[in-house]
Design goal:
The protein is an alpha/beta fold. It is built from 34 helices and 32 strands. The two termini are 15 Å apart.
Length: 914
């Protein structure tokens, strides 16, 4: 959205009749052109600065270039003349207000140039500080501040930031010079370098610039500004920002705003400082003033984790008045925004300046607690509170804990409990190693990423790691903020640990741990434990969670069930609030170690009689599983799906058999195992399919081998009757997979009905049941009206539906999906979030046609999408009866379904639309 105004003289003099885009929004002297609602245009930071200025808070003046400009720049590679003109007039206005000139005169004005998108992307884009310094203005700054060291340090920082952000010079090139200077002077700390040393560094930095960029560091302040602005625009599309947006489901099209703001200095000596904080504890939600600061430090020093900052309560001792003022301002801000604020401040020579305020990111536990506390404090209403928690955040209530009885608990260090939960994994020291060791499969090898501190460049490693451990940095360090957003365990600032990334080892006292060693993290207490402990899942039995869900659930109209194949999972799902089982994949019951030999024998059988004999052995096992699930779900429906996967999945791998046969032929040619292995190989080869996903699976199995379906039907109905006799209410729903014609449904349906009647007769008792089908192939959606004649319910299998709609193999998409996402060909993984345009189109068709034949047909979804908040919202919209998801996503699905219904009813925009 582009905003318009008519007050700018630059615009009113134009002869055009169309109102022109207002690219630039000024803020300063108690008045801002923007306001807090304009996040689309000004980004979160810009909107916050405008709002704080309007509220009369001490904010250094400046102007925000709105996101439209970034979008235009991304498209055309340049900016509009109008933007240049508006920037010039805003700069003049700023200079007038300050009585200074950018980078010139005896009292040079210096500015920061910062990114700021609609949704906070901590550290992912670029910032340049001290802009306006050059060979001349640095001298003026030195004179004015009476502090040579400060002036030259600011200048070298500018060259370094400008060099890397604008000129793409590797950071290492500057670091080498800086470290070299420290070595030369025999000092350890940056602060031990003198003004003369820093002048030396500056001369060498300029050489670095010349060598790498083949041009000089620009001395002209307005050139610096223009180039910095464009670099910040470009940083919207750097790799880490793209990864962050993908993880957080933020649209690539939004673009960033650019904030140009007068510099205030936290590094002007011991009466200056800088800090960040939260109005409440973002990890626990407790109502406590929370934050960190450093005296005599600039900008990113606090969050970059380079020095471990001091708790904000100490500020009360160092500068009581500033502390009180900060508390008063931030309390006002929280009341004003009616949400936890995450703020940044700088103290320049005893004077407080606010640099940012935004709604603070928090853990799921904190989100729930804060929402409830704010209702109790009268700040928000319960119906607003239910939108203050992202459905995915409820997973935090189910994060595992360490099972301390599973091994020796040897605590080797303690750090800050930056993000709760537990993580157990093998140590890796770089983000790239994390990706390699974790692997690319759906199930990751657990790794713990250990770093001195993380930087935004580590984002891809953090994404795959089970947990993060850093030696430096505080509760607001990059590692802490990002992992909290990811709902991932993190311990930050474990100061006793020394990380040697080059040698790939970490040392704590005399102990050395190397890459590949196991480590366990307790993110709730901050304990780092040597070795591998087991983890135990948490329970949803939490009174605050119940309060929040108690407000949300009355709105919910769609049911939530769970996908569970064994009684233990069914019990867990029920404890999380599942209202039934939406999918019991019976093949999973046969993969167990004690069952697979019988399953194999059944597959190996060459005659129906032999097959039946083996099936008879499987029957009691399957029946007892069903009994367990029926008992666990007393009074709730249980959808049992007949066998689905290709038979060869149960047999050993062809290559492994061939190796075994070759070895036996050499070593023990008379072994009976050799004959057996040869026979198995023959069968494996017979059953081999080129496209097993499109081969003998689903109902095709039961049609080719009706005795398999008969056994399954018998197990289901015998279990149902047995359990019902104990007074348990059983509600079986038998589901036929992978239907494409109604005749398949008729064929399998008649086996089910026939066996059911037989069992009821034998047992002298009957139970009511439903007979339905998966809808998971495009053709099934199209002929849903015909299928509904036979089927009493549908369950959309969106895994297979997505696979067959796109022609993307659900098992092999990993080879090209990253490229597709990177290139913007796909916005997200269609196997994670429903593609509403294509797959959704067919689902809607299936819903409409199914209802045409059978108006009250039960309609569910049991693909992985059933636990994805955006997909749940969509399922609500198209009128499904229930969603079914894995047990650990049941809480998420409940809240997402409640939010979808509540936002419709209350006309509130949900919290998920990014
Ligand atoms: C589906 O296809 O969406 C489904 C639930 O079945 P499966 O994942 O077992 O193929
Ligand atoms: Mg399927």
């Amino acid at each position: 959205m582009s905003a318009t105004r008519v007050s700018n003289p630059d615009l009113t003099t134009t002869t055009q009749t169309q109102p022109q885009t207002q690219y630039v929004f000024f803020f300063g002297a108690g008045k801002a052109e923007g306001n807090g609602k304009m996040k689309d245009e000004l980004g979160g930071k810009g909107a916050g600065l405008a709002e704080m200025t309007n509220a009369g808070l001490p904010v250094p003046p400046g102007f925000t270039i709105q996101t439209t400009a970034c979008r235009e720049y991304m498209k055309t590679g340049k900016v509009a003349d109008l933007l240049e003109r508006q920037t010039r007039s805003a700069l003049e206005q700023l200079e007038k207000l300050q009585g200074q000139k950018l980078g010139s005169g005896e009292n040079p004005m210096l500015v920061s140039v910062r990114s700021g998108a609609k949704f906070s992307m901590p550290g992912m884009m670029d910032t340049i500080l001290n802009l306006g310094l050059n060979d001349e203005s640095v001298q003026a700054l030195a004179r004015k501040s009476g502090n040579d060291r400060f002036a030259y340090d600011s200048y070298r920082r500018l060259i370094q930031m400008f060099g890397s952000v604008v000129m793409d010079i590797p950071k290492a090139a500057f670091e080498e010079v800086f470290d070299g200077q420290k070595k030369k002077r025999g000092v350890k700390l940056d602060t031990e370098l003198t003004a003369a040393d820093l002048k030396d560094v500056i001369a060498q930095y300029k050489e670095v610039v010349r060598k790498h960029a083949a041009r000089d560091f620009p001395q002209n302040p307005t050139d610096q500004l223009t180039q910095a602005r464009d670099a910040v625009f470009r940083s919207w599309n750097n790799d880490r920002a793209k990864v962050y947006r993908r993880i957080n489901n933020i649209s690539d099209d939004l673009g960033t705003a650019v904030n140009v703001q007068c510099m205030v200095f936290g590094n002007l000596g011991e009466t200056s400082g800088t800090g960040v904080g939260f109005t409440r504890n973002p990890a626990t939600g407790d109502k406590e003033f929370y934050g960190e600061f450093l005296m005599n430090a600039q900008g990113e020093d606090v969050v970059a984790g380079i020095r471990t900052p001091i708790h904000i309560s100490e500020l009360k001792k160092v500068m009581p008045q500033v502390y009180d003022q900060l508390r008063e301002i931030t309390t006002r801000l929280e009341k004003h925004y009616r949400d936890v604020q995450d703020f940044e401040f700088t103290i320049q020579e005893g004077r407080l300046y606010m640099l940012q305020t935004r709604n603070g990111k928090r853990t799921g536990l904190a989100a729930v607690r804060v929402a409830i506390a704010m209702v109790n404090e009268g700040l928000i209403k319960p119906e607003e509170a239910i939108f203050r928690v992202e459905p995915n955040q409820l997973y935090d209530f189910l994060v595992p804990r360490l099972d301390e009885s599973s091994g020796t608990v040897e605590v080797i260090a303690t750090g800050l409990p930056a993000s709760p939960g537990a993580a157990v994994g093998q140590i890796v020291f770089t983000a790239n190693d994390a990706v390699t060791v974790a692997g690319t499969g759906a199930v990751k090898n657990p790794v713990v990423l250990v770093r001195s501190e993380t930087t935004p460049e580590d984002i891809h490693g953090m994404e795959v790691a089970a947990g993060i451990l850093t030696a430096r940095g505080g509760m607001t360090s990059h590692a802490a903020v990002v992992t909290r957003g990811m709902g991932k365990c993190c311990i930050a600032g474990a100061g006793d640990i020394e990380v040697d990334e080059k040698k790939k080892e970490m040392r704590v006292g005399s102990l050395t741990l190397r890459a590949g060693d196991w480590i366990s993290l307790d993110g709730t207490t901050g304990r780092v434990i040597k070795g591998k402990l087991n983890t135990v899942p948490a329970s949803a039995d939490n009174s605050e969670l119940k309060t929040l869900l108690g407000w949300a659930e009355p709105y919910r109209t769609m049911g939530v069930r769970a996908n569970a194949d064994i009684p233990r999972d069914a019990i867990a799902a029920r404890s999380f609030g599942a209202e039934g089982i939406g999918l019991c994949r019976t093949e999973h019951m046969f993969f167990a170690e004690d069952r697979i030999p019988h399953m194999r024998a059944m597959i190996m059988a060459r005659t129906e009689a032999d097959r039946r004999a083996e099936l008879a052995k499987l029957l009691p096992m399957q029946r007892s599983d069903f009994e367990g699930i029926f008992r666990a779900m007393d009074g709730l429906p249980v959808t049992i799906r007949l066998l689905d996967p290709p038979l060869h999945e149960f047999l050993p791998k062809r290559e492994e058999l061939m190796v075994e046969i070759a070895q036996l032929e050499l070593k023990d040619p008379k072994s009976p195992r050799l004959a057996e292995a040869r026979e198995v190989l023959r069968r494996v080869e017979e059953l081999h399919e080129f496209n097993p996903m499109l081969g003998l699976r689903g109902c095709r199995l039961g049609i080719a081998f009706p005795e398999i379906s008969e056994m399954q039907a018998r197990a289901i109905f015998e279990a149902a009757v047995n359990v019902a006799k104990d007074g348990i209410t059983v509600i079986p729903e038998v589901m036929i997979p992978l239907i494409v014609t109604v005749k398949e449904m008729t064929n399998q349906g008649s086996i089910m009905r026939q066996i059911a009647e037989q069992v009821f007769k034998e047992k002298g008792a009957r139970v009511e049941y439903l007979l339905g089908t998966m809808i998971e192939l495009p053709r099934a959606c199209i002929i849903a009206d015909e299928i509904a004649v036979e089927a009493e319910f549908f369950s959309f299998g969106t895994n297979d539906l997505t696979q067959t709609m796109y022609g993307f193999s659900r098992d092999d998409i990993g080879t090209f999906l990253p490229t597709y996402i990177e290139e913007g060909i796909l916005k997200s993984d269609p196997f994670a979030t429903i593609d509403q345009t294509g797959v959704g189109y067919l689902m809607e068709l299936g819903v409409a046609r199914g209802r045409k034949t059978r108006p009250n047909i039960k309609l569910g979804i049991c693909g992985e999408h059933g636990g994805d908040p955006a997909s749940v919202e969509y399922c609500h919209k198209i009128g499904l009866t229930y969603v079914s998801c894995s047990p650990y996503r049941v809480l998420t699905a409940r809240l997402a379904a409640a939010q979808a219904a509540a936002s419709e009813k209350l006309k509130i925009e949900g919290g998920r639309t990014k």
